[in-house]
Design brief:
The complex is a heterodimer of chains A (396) and B (204). Chain A is α/β, with parallel strands linked by helices. Chain A has helices at 33-53, 73-83, 102-115, 132-135, 142-158, 197-206, 220-232, 255-265, 267-271, 277-280, 288-295, 318-323, 332-346, 363-382, 389-395; strands spanning 2-6, 56-59, 89-95, 120-125, 164-167, 172-176, 190-193, 209-213, 243-251, 303-304, 310-311, 327-330, 351-355. Chain A is built from 15 helices and 13 strands. In chain A, helix 3 (102-115) crosses helix 5. Chain B is globular. Classes of the chains: A alpha/beta (396), B alpha/beta (204).
Chain lengths: 396, 204
């Protein structure tokens, strides 16, 4: 199992006394540039530490929000490509549903792959609903635009005999011939995320790495849909390295210390709720049928615990988050047990995306969290035997 | 179909398919925009045009929001901006038929499909309005806070010879808040030089 350290690079001072949305409309007067500079540099330091400790690293991007200062992932990718030495560098994700220019995306990612000498993992996502207000891209048709951009980027990275033409419904280029081209051949590994079985199957057919976030003990059906697609495309049984799972992690020498830390890390989930309602669901992002269900007051899906309880991860207690495998928390032994128990249930998880920092967790706490994890848990996860097909069926 | 332009051509095809002539075309809000786009393409089958609280053009500077960003509003905020009496706009989705709720969701998606960006207008339309060569009436719910009366008057000034009339105690949808006054004004306008009584609605 590989483990990627991830932080959203938050600006947590802004949500101590805010009264409304943390996203889209929060005035940037609330940012003290000196504090922001210190935080960003500190987060890079923690990624360098992760690299030195044997972890991989993951970055993301959001817009107009205090919860994530990474307003363009290419900056963090570029810095990390140069200052880390050995870690895989995962962007999850690059919101190509919001980008107007996929040619620029292909050029940027090819350069990051070169500077890092082939350490880039290239995660593409359509983008979160509330950021269509920021990018002014239309949520209607976003999945078509996503695949159009994806197809273009892959073709741009893998075409080596001079310019090609691309005139689709969404993008128009006549002389596409990127220089330089990626280090990894034929192109850096593609990742994506989803919560839906339909999309999971499509990702399986393409053989891409699929990650899910916080779905806990309702993850299995999404993974199984991926496995069906993978198999249907003639690839056989999908290996564990095709699957990722993002979990919040708090590990410490004592359970009590880990629980204290977990309360701070859980603010990541709780801050996610502060979005003005109108931005949460732009027309076209969900299907007409799903929107009709929402209008009739039927609630969004919840995370599920191993014993079948439904948890609202934005409000759940730390214990509930642990029960739902949204968070892995405790001593190294406990965390190892929780992770492998969950991976067994999933039928294998080859990539653990570890939110090792969130909210106001201090630098010293983050360093301790990463260090204890890397020294006490990671070596055991490296030798963890992923379930075989028979194990997976038995667990299901 | 992804643009209001496409919808205008659809309605032109429909007029032809049904062989309608001397039509008085009435539109409200987005519907009025569609009607205006249709009229700048061809008035061959039109007798008159009625545009009620239309959107569809850009009037102010690049930093002026001519049309309220209703995609950034909650339902309550939208109702307060769009209606003189917001109470009449409140919907209880739980007691509505499933098919009705689906239609609400579809309409909301259609607004975004056709008018997300450029937001609720076609940058080319103002410079084409001079082509409208049928008598045109602008009706304006006086308490509209989605688009201002100044916007409506500027729109009216771009259509040769167009008249402008207010409807009091109505907002962005005067046909919903003052249906009788709205209908009377349309009928008066149809009669004033004795042309056709046929009405084709372009929806809301």
């Amino acid at each position: 199992m590989r483990v990627y350290h991830f932080t959203e690079q938050p600006y947590p001072d802004a949500w101590e006394d805010h009264t409304e949305s943390l996203r889209v409309t929060l005035p940037n007067r609330r940012v003290d540039p000196v504090i922001a500079a210190n935080l960003l540099n500190r987060y890079y330091d923690e990624w360098v530490l992760a690299d030195e400790l044997g972890l991989d690293v993951m970055v993301n991007e959001h817009h107009q929000t205090a919860t994530c200062m990474s307003a363009t992932s290419i900056v963090a990718l570029s810095v990390l490509a140069r200052i880390t030495k050995r870690a895989r560098i995962l962007i999850l994700g690059y919101p190509i549903g919001h980008r107007t220019d996929p040619l620029r995306v292909a050029e940027e990612l090819a350069m990051v792959d070169l500077v890092s000498r082939g350490r880039l993992d290239m995660g593409f996502i359509k983008g979160v609903p509330y950021e269509f207000a920021c990018s002014n891209q239309n949520a209607v048709g976003v999945m078509d635009r996503f695949w159009d951009a994806h197809d273009f980027i892959i073709k741009a990275m893998t075409t080596h005999d001079g310019p090609f033409n691309w005139e689709s419904e969404n993008f128009h280029y006549r002389q596409v011939n990127i220089w330089p081209r990626p280090y990894q051949q034929p192109h850096p590994p593609v990742w994506s995320t989803t919560a839906s079985r339909g999309n999971a199957r499509v990702l399986g057919e393409r053989g891409y790495v699929m990650s899910v976030l916080g779905s806990g003990y309702s993850t299995r059906p999404v993974y199984d849909a991926y496995r069906e697609g993978y198999k249907a495309a003639g690839r056989g049984m999908a290996p564990a390295d095709r699957f990722g799972y993002l979990g919040l992690i708090s590990v410490a020498a004592t359970e009590q210390k880990a629980r204290e830390r977990a309360e701070i890390i859980a603010t990541y989930l709780r801050s996610g709720e502060h979005v003005a309602p109108a931005f949460k669901n732009p027309p076209g992002y969900l299907s007409v049928e799903d929107n009709a269900r929402l209008l009739r007051g039927q609630t969004a899906p919840r995370s599920v615990t191993k014993d079948g309880r439904k948890i609202d991860m934005r409000k759940g207690s730390v214990q509930e988050l642990i029960d739902a495998a949204v968070m892995f928390c405790g001593t190294p032994d406990q965390v190892f047990e929780q992770i492998t128990d969950f991976a067994d249930y999933c039928g294998g998880v080859g990539n653990l995306l570890m939110m090792g920092h969130a909210g106001t967790l201090s630098h010293a706490e983050t360093v301790d969290n990463l260090t204890v994890f890397a020294k006490e848990v990671l070596p055991r996860l490296k030798t963890y035997r992923q379930p075989t097909l028979d194990d997976a069926i038995a667990a299901a | 179909m992804t643009t209001v332009d496409d919808v205008a051509y659809l309605y032109l095809d429909l007029l032809q398919e049904l062989d309608l002539r001397d039509v008085t075309l009435v539109g409200v809000s987005l519907g009025a925009w569609i009607a205006a786009e249709l009229a700048v393409k061809s008035t061959e089958r039109l007798a008159k045009l009625v545009l009620a609280n239309p959107v569809g053009i850009k009037v102010g500077s690049r930093e002026t929001r001519d049309i309220a960003d209703f995609f950034a509003m909650s339902d309550d905020e939208f109702n307060a901006a769009a209606f003189a009496d917001p109470a009449i706009a409140v919907r209880d989705y739980k007691s509505m038929l499933e098919a009705q709720v689906l239609r609400v969701a579809k309409n909301r998606e259609a607004f975004a499909r056709f008018a997300w960006s450029p937001f609720m207008h076609n940058p080319k339309l103002s410079s084409r309005l001079h082509r409208v060569n049928v008598p045109t009436l602008f009706l304006w719910g006086s308490q509209d806070r989605i688009v201002s009366q100044d916007y409506g008057r500027a729109y009216c000034a771009a259509v040769p010879g167009a008249r402008f009339e207010l409807i009091e105690a109505a907002g962005h949808f005067p046909h919903i808040e003052q249906p009788e006054i709205f209908a009377a004004k349309v009928l008066d306008f149809m009669e004033y030089d004795g042309s056709s009584r046929r009405v084709a609605g372009a929806g809301r």
